[in-house]
Amino acid sequence: MPDRATRADVGVFVGSLRRDSHTRKVARALIEIAPPRLQLGFVEIGTLPFYNQDLEESVPPAWAEFRARVRALNAVLFVTPEYNRGMPAALKNAIDVGSRPPRNNVWSGKPGGVVSVTTGGYGAMASHHQLRQVLMAVNVQALALPEMYVANIEAALGPEGTVTNEKTIEFLRKFVDKFATWIDLLAPGSAGSP
Q1: In a domain, 96, yes or no
Q2: For residue 132, what are the domain limits?
């Protein structure tokens, strides 16, 4: 029986590279309210060279480190804005880097979650669904429900830039609790489940 103290190591991938982005603020809130059996931590993607198969002949150190980090994770959580009706290029690039070469796809079989964030009213739905489609192609098993669209994010932030709106916090808490259960289901033992 697994040690009950074991915590699932969950990588958090933020699609916006802006240091003070709304997306990163939502990701921080998720990290803070996650149940104790999950250990959420950022995996940075901003310095990864663009995927180019020619570079596989002499793999860039940033690719090698990123692939090793993702391979070691129990689960993955993507928090994305929407740029021009799609996911940011940096996020797609990170997924591509981790998925190549195909026989070494470091994403394959991992439980995943998707959260999309926007200042507008639609919750970045186009980006959200595009990301889900790409995750399916690399064999990440993304939690289907609840779908997590965070709209009108500026109204949920306090003066310090943290998520302070109680309804939003509760929405995020319900999602991350379901995500923890999803991880338990797909990766038994990784979060201390029997």
Answers
A1: yes
A2: 14-186
Other beta carbons within 10 Å of 20 = 8
Beta bridge partners of 9: 39
Tell me what the pLDDT averaged over the chain comes to: 92
Q: Is the peptide bond before 146 cis (omega within 30 degrees of 0)?
A: yes
CA dist., res. 68 & res. 63, Å (int) = 9
* pLDDT over 90, % of the chain: 84
Amino acid occupying residue 22: H
Q: What count of Cα atoms within 13 Å lies in the side-chain half-sphere of residue 70?
A: 30
Cis preceding linkage at 2, omega within 30:
no
Contact criterion met (CB below 8 Å) for 151 and 144: no
Amino acid at 46: G
Full-prediction pTM beyond 0.70? yes
CB 140 within 8 A of CB 76: yes
